[in-house]
Specification:
single chain, 3 domains, 12 strands, alpha/beta, four-stranded mixed sheet, three-stranded mixed sheet, 37% helix
């Protein structure tokens, strides 16, 4: 436990590893420990415990977790919005971009679920619109779009023509979501990362480099949102 946050610790034995290695996982929400052959579990546990200060420093640098609860602030299309429980109100979740508020009506226990449903719905709408636009520009077509909570990638494209995206893209600036859509749609023509693939992406997505840099430096931040 780091502060009031519980981190999962995963030990992975690796035959080619020469020493114990500890790092945060890709989302910053857990710890991965690489264990060489011949190193006992007890020694690996002791190594992890002695690395507590290092883990705490990295978690602090990552920032605290964001819960889908009133008073917490999360990014919607790259702009910070405070979650507001509209007690006594009925209707749908709405975003007030001028006041930077997300109004969630209904009973308090249902706020996290209703807000998550709203975020997924907004992500689907934005990603469907962007995917259709790029499909028309690139002269391709896709079968369907799936919205998931993918931890290791922002999107994927199957050989059958199905696109899958992380709902967390709705938390990123518009140009980042737009780039990921362009990237995956381009895979409908080139299922690789060849020069032809990148030429197609860069021809139609002017903010590709800017978006890639944002994901590199800030992508982990959207995984601070706990569902």
């Amino acid at each position: 436990m780091v502060g009031d946050e519980v981190l999962d610790v995963v030990f992975r034995r690796h035959g080619k590893a020469r020493r114990l290695v500890l790092r945060l996982n890709a989302t910053g929400t857990g710890v991965l420990v690489t264990v060489p052959n011949g190193v006992s579990r007890a020694r690996a546990l002791d190594f992890t415990e002695r690395s507590r200060d290092w883990i705490e420093d990295r978690v602090k640098a990552r920032g605290g977790l964001i819960h889908l609860l009133p008073g917490h602030v999360l990014s919607l299309r790259g702009l910070e919005h405070e979650i507001h429980h509209a007690a006594g109100r009925r209707g749908v979740v709405t975003a007030d971009s001028e006041r930077c508020l997300i109004h969630v009506p209904g009973e308090l226990p249902h706020v996290p679920r209703r807000l998550l449903d709203f975020l997924k719905s907004e992500a689907r709408a934005d990603l469907t619109r962007a995917s259709r636009r790029y499909a028309a520009l690139m002269g391709v077509s896709f079968r369907r779009i799936t919205i998931r909570d993918q931890r290791s990638r922002w999107g994927s494209c199957s050989a059958a023509g199905d696109l899958s995206y992380s709902w967390r893209l709705i938390l990123t600036p518009d140009y980042v979501l737009d780039y990921v859509a362009a990237h995956e749609v381009a895979h409908l023509r080139h299922l690789d990362h060849s020069a032809r693939f990148w030429r197609l992406v860069l021809t139609h997505c002017k903010d590709a480099t800017r978006a890639k840099n944002w994901l590199r430096f800030h992508g982990q931040d959207v995984h601070r949102v706990v569902t």
